[in-house]
Design goal:
This protein has 243 residues and is of the alpha/beta class. The protein is built from nine helices and ten strands. Strand 9, helix 8 and strand 10 form a beta-alpha-beta unit. Helix 8 packs across helix 9. The two termini are 13 Å apart.
Length: 243
C-alpha cells in the first residue's frame, strides 16, 4: 500500500505554515491528510502554531502561553512569509476542525508539549476532536513520552510517538508507553524498523519527505504515511513510482 500524503503544517512551502491559507491550499492540491501543531494559550485555548514563541511566524514577541487567544488573534501571522498573506491570523483548533469536518481528509495533530508540558493539553485536544466527531481519522502525536502515556487512556484514537533519535528498541519502547504508531525522521527509516513495526501491527510514518528518492524509499519500505512540505509534488512522485 502506498503511503498516505500529509501536508506538513499545510502547504507550507507555498503559504505561511499552520494558517488557513496553507490548509486550504493543501486541500486544493489534493493532499490526503493535514499535519499541524497545537499549543495552549493563557486562557487554555488550543491554537495552531509550531514554536513555543510567536516571534518567528508573527509580528509579535513572547510565549504562546502568555497570550490570551484574543491577544494572539491580533498578531499578523502571514507577512513574515510574503506580503500576499499580510493580516493572516493564528488559527484556533476549533476553527480548523470546523473547516476540516466535511472534507475527506485525515488529520495529524502534534502536541507541542516536549518543551512546555502544558497542563491538560491531551484532554483538551481530545475533547475538541471528539466534539467534531473526528476521532476515527485523527492521529495525535508527540515527542513527549509522558504525554504518550497520558494519551494512552484514550482507546479510540491513534497515538504516535515522535522521535528524531536512533533506538534499536524503538517499537517496543513505543508500545510500552502506550503508542500504536511511530513517526520518525527520514534518516531513521530502515527495513528492520519497518518490519518490527509491521509485526506489532504498528503504523510507521516518516517526516519530512520532500524529494523523489525519499518518497520512493518510503513507498518501497512500506511506510503508512509521509509528512511533506510539498504535497502536490509528493502526490506526483508517488504516482510516478506506482507506475
Amino acid at each position: 500500500m502506498s503511503p498516505k500524503i500529509f501536508a506538513h503544517r499545510g502547504a507550507s512551502r507555498r503559504a505561511p505554515e499552520n494558517t488557513m491559507p496553507a490548509f486550504k491550499l493543501a486541500y486544493c492540491l489534493g493532499t490526503e491528510g493535514i499535519e499541524t501543531d497545537v499549543q495552549l494559550t493563557k486562557d487554555d485555548i488550543p491554537v495552531l502554531i509550531h514554536d513555543e514563541e510567536v516571534k518567528r511566524t508573527t509580528n509579535g514577541t513572547g510565549f504562546v502561553k502568555d497570550f490570551t487567544f484574543n491577544q494572539l488573534k491580533q498578531l499578523d501571522a502571514g507577512s513574515w512569509f510574503s506580503k500576499e498573506f499580510a493580516g493572516v491570523s493564528i488559527v484556533s483548533l476549533d476553527k480548523f476542525l470546523q473547516w476540516i469536518h466535511d472534507k475527506p481528509l485525515c488529520l495529524n495533530i502534534e502536541l507541542k508539549n516536549n518543551k512546555i508540558d502544558y497542563k491538560n493539553l491531551e484532554t483538551i485536544v481530545y475533547e475538541r476532536i471528539d466534539y467534531y466527531q473526528l476521532l476515527n481519522r485523527t492521529i495525535l502525536s508527540t515527542f513527549n513520552p509522558n504525554s504518550v502515556k497520558r494519551l494512552s487512556e484514550f482507546k479510540d484514537i491513534e497515538i504516535a510517538l515522535l522521535t528524531l533519535k536512533k533506538n534499536k528498541n524503538l517499537v517496543s519502547h513505543a508500545l510500552e508507553l502506550g503508542a500504536n504508531a511511530i513517526h520518525i525522521r527520514y534518516r531513521l527509516l530502515n527495513q528492520a524498523l519497518v518490519g518490527k513495526s509491521h509485526n506489532e501491527n504498528m503504523a510507521i510514518r516518516v517526516f519530512t519527505v520532500n524529494k523523489f528518492e525519499h518518497v520512493k524509499k518510503c513507498t518501497v519500505y512500506g511506510a503508512k504515511g509521509i509528512f511533506t512540505d510539498v504535497p502536490d509534488k509528493a502526490l506526483h512522485y508517488r504516482q510516478m513510482i506506482n507506475k
